[in-house]
Structure formats: structure tokens, C-alpha cells
Specification:
By secondary structure, the chain is an all-alpha fold. 65% of the residues lie in helices and 2% in strands. It has a two-stranded antiparallel ribbon. Strand 1 and strand 2 form a beta hairpin. The termini are far apart.
């Protein structure tokens, strides 16, 4: 009986307390805030706020709630999310060269030259970094010249990482991160040229060529397109678009590669002996790494972890996958056997074609780019090279120069305004065509001058005996495969 009496007395109070607690919880949930972390006010037995606390909680009759002012955007504050994406993209683009391009090219050469390709990629990474620190970044991204920057930021003077900075579309990303991101482009671009001259150019000649070519071609191209120069937007400029390097990277390296290959001459035994790739497995692994790294290349060029980066990732995926499929399909139609090399070539072709367009076209535009990437470079590699008889050992010209040109021109037709502000049409296509002609002219003329300068000084080629033995032994004193 005492227990029943106690329950009758305590139960109503307990239920009332639960109800009040639930009511308070609802209030906080609707306001999406939690109670301020102050000392708890004295409570009455029913769980409500005590009268003294109620009075303290009431605003003065004459007081008006002040609307908080929205703080102005502080561009000096680092945006952690965007910075994390740019750090990741930087690593991905470097991953494209080491080991991606090294394995892709290394698998396509003969066994006696595989280490030479790896050493050339490693050497370019080191040399390009020294040049970028000393003058390359400054010449590319400082000053307001039409063709080249100045030396205001030589030796990376004044560049730190304590705050974000604003450069075009980049806001809240430390400038030192931007410096290294762009460095990875300066590394892979001259490395692409190696494909055309593989197996027949001395290591010392390669290093001298890369140094001079970077100064004469790459830094001016980067400035003219991305550094506020002649080819980009702005008053008095051509107004061409190049999201991630169709002209700056692929066309400049591709046309230069053809000129250098012609001046070098063909490999010993070209068209007389078999020069098949020594490892398609390494080539395929390198292709896969390039594809993955290209997300940093293209989506990283958005400068932030945003919808534009997502669009670049989508279009890059579509173009690469479709380019590989179409190239292999053409092989199946023409020779009844789609090859792994065909798939790899088509994937890289798709990646090249979409590079200038990745941040300007939609999914349908990416599909069109992928189809063109599988068709046009295919005929350049399979037919054009055979007709003209030049020795582009690993098809740098056929894939990068031709693919970069196709992508640059398609950007002028397929660009969608809602994605990044550019609209395809006659005006933009004209700008793209003019940018293409200027890129070709600079690349061809500068490369010819540099190549002949090296040829008549230190020489471009090893001796016939060293070339026959293989560059692994003659240049590096090592063998990649010991039998």
C-alpha cells in the first residue's frame, strides 16, 4: 500500500518533468541551436526556469535585436577544403610523370632503352624544378607583358604559405601550393617530347634541350594563356580558352616533338627491323596511372573543390573512356583485332582532347570529344605517319599535337556558357584557331633553332655503336633487364 501511495504521489510529477524536457528539446531542435554553455539556472521542482532566471532571460523593453553584419570575404584566409584539393591535385599531376609517363613510354621502347626513358623523366623533374624556382614561375605568372612575364618573383621572392592569395579563379589557396601545382605542369610538358625522340638522343642533349625549350616555349606559352598574356582573356588579348593545357602543354610539346624528331633523323634500322614495344604490361599500367593523375591535371585546374572541378572530372572520364573504346573499335574494323596498345593510345588521346575543354563543355560535349579523340589521332598515327615516313617513335605528334589541336578547336564550338562563361560559336572558334596558329609557330621555330644549336655544339645523337648497344648502357651504365 505504501508503494502504491508513493507511485500515485510521484508519478504525476515525473511525467510532468518528462513532458517539460521534451518541450525544451523541441524548441532547441527548431532553432537548430544548442543551449549556451552557461551555468544552469536554479530550477523549480517541475523543471521550469526559476522566476529570477526568467527575468534575466527577458530583453529590456527598449532593446531591439541587432541583425549581425555579414563579414566581408577575406581573401587572405586559407580555405582548407580548396587547399586540400589543390595539394591532392599537385600530387596527382606529378604522379602522371613519375611513374605514369615513365612507365607508359618505358614499356613502349625496346628493352635496351627502358632505363634511358626513366632517367630522362627523372632528370627533367629535377632540372625543371631548379628552373621553376630560379625564373620559370616568375616568367610565367608575374608582370603584365603580352608574351612573357618578368622577374619580380624570381627565386620565388615574397612567396609564402601563411595566407591565401587571389589569382584569377583561385581564392584562399596558399601561393606556394599554386607554385608547386604549376611546377608539375612544367615537368610533364617537356617530358612528353621524349616519346618522339626515344632511343636516339643523348641524355646530355636532352637536358640542354629541355632547359632552353622551357625558357623559349613553355614559359611564354604559360604566360600568354594563363598569366594574363596575349592568348587569354582581357583587353587587347585574343580571348582563347584553354582550361588545363591543350595549347600550353599538348600542342607546344607535340609540334616541338615532330620538329626535333625530323632534325634528329630516324632510329638506326627504322623500317628495316622490328621495333616492337618490349612490355605492353608496363604501358598499360602507365596508361592507368596517367588516367588517374589526369584528374589532378584537369579537375585541379578548377582551382577549388567545387562544381567546376566536378564537371572537369566528369568530362575527363567520359572522353578518356570513349576515346579508348573508339580507337580499339577502329582497329577491330580495320584489322579484326583490337589491341591493348590501341586501347591505351585512345585513352591518352581522349585525355589530351578533353584537356582544353574539360571546364567548358558538358557531358555531351565530352562524348563528342571522346569520339573525335578515337578517330582523328588514330588516322594520324596509323596513316599520316606511314604516308610521310617520319620516325615519331612513340607517337607524341600523332596523339598530343593532333589531339591538342582537335581539343582546342572543339572547345570553340562546344563550350557551354552556363558551365564556365564561355559560349561556343564563330567568335570563340576564331580565337581558338588564332591561338592554335601562334602556338604552332612559336613551337616550331623555337624548337628548330634550339635543336640546330645543340646539334652543332655538343651534338644530339650518340654514336652509332652506342645507339645499337642501347642508351641504358651508353648513357647510364646500367641494364634494365639482365639475362
Amino acid at each position: 500500500m505504501k508503494i502504491q501511495s508513493l507511485l500515485k504521489t510521484a508519478l504525476p510529477t515525473l511525467l510532468l518533468g518528462v513532458a517539460c524536457a521534451a518541450s525544451a528539446s523541441d524548441v532547441f531542435a527548431e532553432g537548430e541551436t544548442s543551449p549556451p554553455p552557461t551555468l544552469a539556472a536554479p530550477a523549480s521542482p517541475a523543471g521550469t526556469i526559476a522566476p529570477a532566471a526568467q527575468e534575466a532571460a527577458q530583453p529590456a523593453p527598449s532593446a531591439k535585436p541587432e541583425s549581425p553584419e555579414k563579414p566581408a570575404e577575406d581573401k587572405s584566409v586559407i580555405n582548407a577544403g580548396d587547399t586540400a584539393w589543390m595539394l591532392t591535385s599537385t600530387a596527382l599531376v606529378l604522379f602522371m610523370t613519375l611513374p605514369g609517363l615513365a612507365l607508359f613510354y618505358g614499356g613502349l621502347v625496346r628493352r635496351k632503352n627502358v632505363l634511358s626513358v626513366l632517367a630522362q623523366c627523372l632528370g627533367i623533374a629535377g632540372l625543371a624544378t631548379i628552373l621553376w624556382w630560379a625564373a620559370g614561375f616568375s616568367l610565367s605568372f608575374s608582370g603584365d607583358g603580352k608574351f612573357i612575364g618578368n622577374l619580380d618573383k624570381a627565386f620565388l621572392a615574397g612567396i609564402g604559405g601563411k595566407g591565401g592569395f587571389s589569382y584569377d579563379h583561385l581564392v584562399g589557396v596558399p601561393e606556394n601550393v599554386f607554385v608547386v601545382f604549376q611546377l608539375t605542369f612544367a615537368i610533364i610538358t617537356p617530358a612528353l617530347i621524349l616519346g618522339a625522340i626515344a632511343e636516339r638522343m643523348k641524355f646530355t642533349a636532352v637536358m640542354v634541350f629541355v632547359a632552353l625549350w622551357s625558357l623559349a616555349v613553355y614559359y611564354p606559352m604559360a604566360h600568354m594563356v594563363w598569366g594574363g598574356g596575349l592568348l587569354g582573356g582581357g583587353e587587347g588579348n585574343i580571348g582563347a580558352i584553354d582550361f588545363a593545357g591543350g595549347a600550353v602543354v599538348h600542342m607546344s610539346s607535340g609540334y616541338s616533338a615532330l620538329v626535333l624528331a625530323l632534325i634528329l633523323g630516324p632510329r638506326l634500322g627504322f623500317r628495316k627491323e622490328k621495333m616492337a614495344p618490349h612490355s605492353m604490361v608496363l604501358c598499360m599500367i602507365g596508361t592507368a596511372i596517367l588516367w588517374i593523375g589526369w584528374y589532378g591535371f584537369n579537375a585541379g585546374s578548377a582551382g577549388a573543390a567545387n562544381g567546376l572541378a566536378g564537371n572537369a572530372l566528369l568530362t575527363t572520364t567520359f572522353a578518356a573512356a570513349i576515346g579508348g573504346f573508339v580507337w580499339a573499335l577502329l582497329e577491330f574494323i580495320t584489322k579484326k583485332q583490337p589491341s591493348v596498345l590501341g586501347f591505351c593510345s585512345g585513352v591518352v588521346g581522349g585525355l589530351v582532347v578533353i584537356t582544353p575543354a574539360a571546364g567548358f563543355v558538358d557531358a555531351t560535349g565530352a562524348v563528342i570529344c571522346g569520339i573525335f579523340a578515337g578517330i582523328v589521332p588514330f588516322f594520324a598515327v596509323v596513316k599520316l605517319k606511314a604516308w610521310l615516313g617520319y620516325d615519331d617513335a612513340l607517337d607524341t605528334f600523332g596523339v598530343h599535337a593532333v589531339g591538342g589541336t582537335v581539343g582546342t578547336l572543339l572547345s570553340g564550338v562546344l563550350a557551354v556558357k552556363d558551365i564556365n562563361g564561355a559560349t561556343g560559336g564563330i567568335e570563340l572558334l576564331t580565337a581558338q584557331a588564332l591561338a592554335t596558329l601562334i602556338t604552332i609557330a612559336l613551337s616550331v621555330v623555337a624548337t628548330a633553332i634550339i635543336a640546330f644549336l645543340i646539334k652543332f655544339t655538343i651534338g644530339l645523337r650518340p654514336t652509332a655503336e652506342a645507339e645499337s648497344q642501347g642508351l641504358d648502357i651508353s648513357d647510364h651504365g646500367e641494364e634494365g633487364y639482365v639475362s
